[in-house]
Amino acid sequence: PAGPSVVRGGPGPDPGAAGTLLRVLGGTLDGVRVEGGGASGAGIELACDGAGAPTLRDVTVDGGGSLDPGGAVAGGLPAGIVVTGGCGANLQRVVATGLSGPALSVVTPAPAPVRVTGGAYQASEVGIWLRGGATTLDADGTTSVVVSGNAWAGIAIGGGPDRGAAPVAVPGAGIARAVVSGNLGTGIAVTQLVEPGSAVSIANVDVSANGASARVLTTVYAGTPRRVGGALLALANVGTLAGLVGSRFWANAGDQLVFETTAKFLVGPSSACGPASNVFACVPPGAWAVGENGSGGEVRALYDAWPPGGPAGSTSTGVTAVVDCAGSPAVRPPPTCP
Prior knowledge:
Radius of gyration: 20 Å
Low-confidence stretches: none
Structural class: mainly beta
Number of helices: 0
Oligomer: single chain
């Protein structure tokens, strides 16, 4: 330890060796700061000794990396916090930054509950990467989970950037009251999931100003790649999406929300404008607020708020809209465009 509440790593005698700096098997770790210091392993592993889910509270992991001009993280630990145990985990107001891999990675194959409340996952290769477990992200009181300034995706659910990777099962990925902003790649990427066997929900999330780099995911539509800076959901089974409601997508590079699917999905409410309506705003010229890419697929965005001109000017074929809820007092207010 470098101090009463600091754990600092350092280069080992074998540069190829990778050891976790801190392994937590249960109980609560409170107020500790973990610094990479040139080490080559993960910052914290959350495992399980059968005594219950480990908890991190007000913990900071600083991997020591920095974002280079090419849009990658130079140096830094390869992972910030890795959840591997079958007991699940609780992360309260945790900050992870400066990682050359994911700031938070959930890889447990068990459907163990992982609860993330508040905190920030930022300035890393990926903010949060869910490849297993049953994870819920939510605010700590009124303070949102913030996922920002990452080199690739803000939140990745499933196989990640390699669209040819083997699908993985993610029994639960519930994203609520989070801010996903300023990531250089796609804000939320849902790809390569085992279906059925996975579940995703997005509620009251702000997704903005993502996708500025060449690392943004693309979807090939009519032979032409389209940049998807906001959220890309590649889903085959309608039962995988438990809901996409009350969220705002705006000022992302390229398209704001795209489904790659041959199924028929509902986003927002089914009967009237209200708090569950999604808001789409600040859409770049030629981009989609909502797009559907897949033979026979459909996205039913029936009661959502659209940019000026309504859905007709900002959706692809395969998107069905009924009412433009822009201006409705029951809907979340529109953001201010940059």
